[in-house]
Amino acid sequence: MELFGSRFHFLCFVSLFLLISAVFPVSSIGINYGQIANNLPTPENVIPLVKSIGATKVKLYDADPKVLKAFANTGVEFIIGLGNEYLSGMKDPAKARDWVKTNVQAYLPATKITCIFVGNEVLTFNDTSLSGCLLPAMEGVHTALVSLGLDKQVTVTTAHSLAILETSYPPSAGAFRKDLVNCITPILNFHAKTGSPFLINAYPYFAYKDSPKQVPLDFVLFQPNQGIVDPASNLHYDNMLFAQIDAVYSALASLGYKKLFIHISETGWPSKGDENEAGATPENAKKYNGNLIKLITSKKGTPMRPNCDLNIYVFALFNENMKPGPTSERNYGLFKPDGSPAYSIGFSTTTATGNSTVALPSPPAAPESSSSPSSSTGYLSISSATMERYSSNGIVGTLILVLLILINLVVVVVV
Ligand SMILES: *[C@@H]1O[C@H](CO)[C@@H](O)[C@H](O)[C@H]1NC(C)=O
Ligand SMILES: *[C@@H]1O[C@H](CO)[C@@H](O)[C@H](O)[C@H]1NC(C)=O
Q1: CATH homologous superfamily of domain 27-372?
Q2: pLDDT class for 395, splitting at 50, 70, 90?
Q3: Where are the chain's structural domains?
Q4: What HEC string does 371-403 produce?
Q5: Atom number, ligand 1, closest to the C-alpha of residue 126
Q6: With a 6 A CB cut-off, is 126 part of the ligand 1 pocket?
Q7: Residue 345 has what pLDDT?
Q8: Does the bond joining 232 to the residue before it have cis omega, within 30 degrees of 0?
């Protein structure tokens, strides 16, 4: 009986979620699928986990053929990585073309690869020879895509650490490290020319861990708090992540690049850490990631870019047992390797998937009416991805869809 009860609640929740997402388009959730571990489920068994958190975009650190094959025809979008160890080779057009043929073209269009990130946090290694290879590698891969006719569907970028900033507070004063400006400027030019996003990995957790006495925990965890006002812009910030993102917008603007899109390629919070890693607890991880997911689905931009979608990839899908470094490094996952939730993300119902259980997403916050588009609603806006997602769930999915369409018809009539 209890099972029936929770199933029923789940159905109500899903129809509410679908209704909200059908009537108010929501930004989609991205998730980082790191695999530095020897105990992770097979990629086939990862698909339901990705879907259970509502993620429609996955970021891979490489171009793992098993993953790219398993996710064919799932509708999930992929950003794949070209590791730092391959950068120096990519200025050779033949090598770049081979890489793109083998790791991208071979999976299109069944697997929706939309972006390649060339190198991870390269500039903050302070290795000038590696940094010097970055732009030529990005250009090499882009040229290969052009020659294969794929550049319209696949963009090229790289992911930076927030440590490329010298100043991040207040957000309006955001500026790049002076010693990196000469290297970053031509990369920004590349983004502007090719229309690719600027990727930044941003962790309010690090700021808190370094100064737990000074940084208010609620401000970093998206909990209700007074926030801060940027004295120069007068903009109000109630969470640190938005302040960090706007600091990057300021840094870009200060070099004359006001129109680039920023995607947050990593952010997250560890559920466990060493004694000297303040704040790394399941309670805090649940607040950070639960609130973050609500924020992403609420379709609210940052104070500087209120109308821009938040493109955020949560770090990470799994706890990764073979990552070096402090304990926190192995405990960023939403899931344990057996597929069970590392902690509840705020919505306690679970559903069986094979032998494991998964956490369901917390209900999205109702979008504020002021920011929601006024019309263009109704059943027509149920996306094909949504149809695919739920119609593939057999009879339950079909019932949900029918219910959803009925509810939407009512909404259309009422509106
Ligand atoms: C790189 O250089 C910056 C600025 O000189 C310094 O703050 C940072 O700690 C260095 N990073 C590494 C990994 O050496
Ligand atoms: C489920 O568990 C059983 C026994 O523990 C095991 O034999 C089986 O392979 C598992 N199935 C999956 C899909 O993991």
Answers
A1: Glycosidases (3.20.20.80)
A2: low
A3: 1-25+376-415, 27-372
A4: HCCCCCCCHHHCCHHHHHHHHCCHHHHHHHHHH
A5: 1
A6: yes
A7: 80
A8: no
